[in-house]
Amino acid sequence: MSETIEEAAERIAAAGASPARPARDPVNRPAIRDWLAAIGDRNPVYERDGVAPPAMVQVWTMRGLRPDQEDELDPLRAMSAVLDDAGYGSVVATDCGQTYHRYLREGETVAVSSRLTAVAGPKRTALGEGWFVTTESTWSVDGEPVAEMRFRVLKYRPSATPATPKSEPIRPVIGPDTAFFWAGVEAGELRIQRCGECGNLRHPPGPACPRCGALKPEYAVASGAGRIHSFVVHHHPPLPGRRSPVVVALVDLDEGVRMVGELRGVRPGEVRIGAEVRADFADGLPVWRPAELVVLPPWELAVTPTVVISTALATRDFQDVHHDRDAAVRRGGKDIFLNILTTTGLVQRYVTDWAGPEATVRGVEIRLGAPCHPYDTLTFSGSARGGEVAVTGRTRTAEHVSGTVRLAP
Ligand code: ZN
Q: Do residues 53 and 32 touch, judged by C-beta distance below 8 A?
């Protein structure tokens, strides 16, 4: 009787970490320059200090277009082969968390060792039925660990009729009583309805003043400052265009009215009643952010076929779905799409563009959502608190990536 997927996973996990496999080439300037050009990263620190961008760590040990030897000892490869045989032939990366102990220097040769840590399935996903495979890798230079990564892929069987998830966020219904409020959101103002007769502030908006009954609505512009009165953490059901969990907070504005909205930039477990928040605007909605949060300027990237292909090659990822449209379509996609090493690199670039060349990146943790195809626009937004920068990258219709970049203090 043949081995089940669970038995194979157990056997591969029990084998532990694979022997350290050295990179084909040492860390070198031509590869760094190609990566910087493809990602569009102009941070001068890499050239000046002779170091590699931290998000390149995985690039050095990518196996290349024609691997010189088969690597049966690689646990992801071994597990993928088992799942291929079981009919789960397609693959997509879903999560990646990298920690950097230091930047790699030109001339150093890194080696990678990986172990299988989890195999979960079969799960029904928007792409089709599949298994989530998690590995942990360590990169080292002469035995000194320099970086670690937790990496998760979905090995799946493309469904014949792929479910197209409704990914557009829900839009507000705008009526005569609320038009001023949404016009304010457009203009980056948080507006509160004010009675034109007695000056009473009220929210939500309505035609009549609850205090004097006058039908003379005007509005005031709120400072945007407030405190959390109460909140809920929404886990289920899934919300269109949103990643669960979502924190929804009821906020006491300094002006004395209460307003509800999504609270972003804080982990659900860290929300505290009474905490100071500040209004911000995202996706055409007012949202709340912790008051001490710094909001990064957004960055728009026009994703051309050249961006997708040049970054795939500069990250030494030769999987056909990143450069061959016919192959991508055959595998159930609508076109070629960005690879996860590139998304990691773009997230790192977005944060270092903002933080400046002297910032040291300690880690990048991302979750991938909808794929990003050519002719789309990827818009990054972020907010920083202490040394943690939360980043979101959205295509025109859906969230492509969300994650956190950790900077050295
Ligand atoms: Zn009134």
A: yes
